[in-house]
Amino acid sequence: MMKKYDVFIVGAGVAGLYTSIILKKGTPMQVPNEPLGVAVAEATKIGGLTQYAFIQITKKWAFSGSNLIRTLYSEAVQSKVEFLENSGVTKIIKQSNGDFKIQTTNSEFIAKYVVIATGILTFPNILDSSNRFNIGLHTPEEMVKEIVNNYGWKKVLVVGNNENSIAKLTSKLIESKQFNIVSHYLLRTNINFQSQNYGLNEALLKSYDGILFDYNSYKLQNGSTHFLNNLNVTQENGYIKTNAFGETKVSGLFAVGSVTMPISGVPEAIYSGQVTGLYVGHLLEKTTIADPSGRFPFLPREENWKSSFQHKLEQNSDGDA
Ligand SMILES: Cc1cc2nc3c(=O)[nH]c(=O)nc-3n(C[C@H](O)[C@H](O)[C@H](O)COP(=O)(O)OP(=O)(O)OC[C@H]3O[C@@H](n4cnc5c(N)ncnc54)[C@H](O)[C@@H]3O)c2cc1C
Questions:
Q1: What is its EC number (predicted)?
Q2: CATH 3.50.50.60 boundaries in the chain
């Protein structure tokens, strides 16, 4: 028999972790012995892109992404969220009874609600070889200075999801006349889980001094949503379209974090996990007790939840809801 969950979350980055904790700890329970069944499936290892980031909030305040992930993961484990590691989700099917069937690389599951939290990359762990990677967060000119002056690279491979963007960056690097070899490699969006790191194998990596990860690509193209093609919830550039509560146009299917927002960061990922986690928790209707007032002062009291949420999706220009 397939294991059944109330909520199945795809992706254990900051957004997926936070959503899972909110579902387990933020939803007031009428019956304490009837906890929500929440699972998080992760294609590779827990943490997503945040584990590689130093989160800059203001000029005077930044904190370690890996510390944040450690804290959230330990909260989630303590709240009895079930983690399915090395479980890439390959397909999600909406069944006629309203439940979802989730196929992973190892197994199949059933869930009442699904939350997609896959970020912008299926394998952010491509950044594990960090001594040979740099993230192109700046203008091409600054990137040239950084990788020449700080790293001394002469042979550079530019990687990214958007062909135009990586080709443009590559031509700027060639124009600078600072390198012996500059090539580019398109991270295909339609990869299979066996070819982790997008086919960027050791032999290829060794022929370059370093890899420049074209961050700009990811504002243009999401590379983590190919497995949702059958559900038709993504936009042309692969980002998932939702309303303010994370609802997609498929009833019961939600999305949080950077998979929904090309320009975003850790605070936005946390916030979206909070709103969607609370919303889905209340949809499960395992409670009749109102939230203690003031607990979440920015959210309506429980008896008004349904009427106060204007959760209609915006109409597309072609009238498709
Ligand atoms: C170098 C760097 C610096 C950054 N600096 C900042 C900063 O200063 N401030 C800031 O706010 N933000 C920063 N960011 C961005 C921040 O890391 C992202 O906004 C954040 O990670 C988004 O979280 P997420 O949970 O939506 O996605 P992610 O962290 O990308 O997590 C998604 C997870 O889903 C998994 N996944 C994908 N597809 C599947 C699938 N089919 N099945 C199962 N699992 C899947 C992935 O393996 C991944 O673990 C930085 C990022 C980097 C790389």
A1: 1.8.1.9
A2: 3-120+222-308
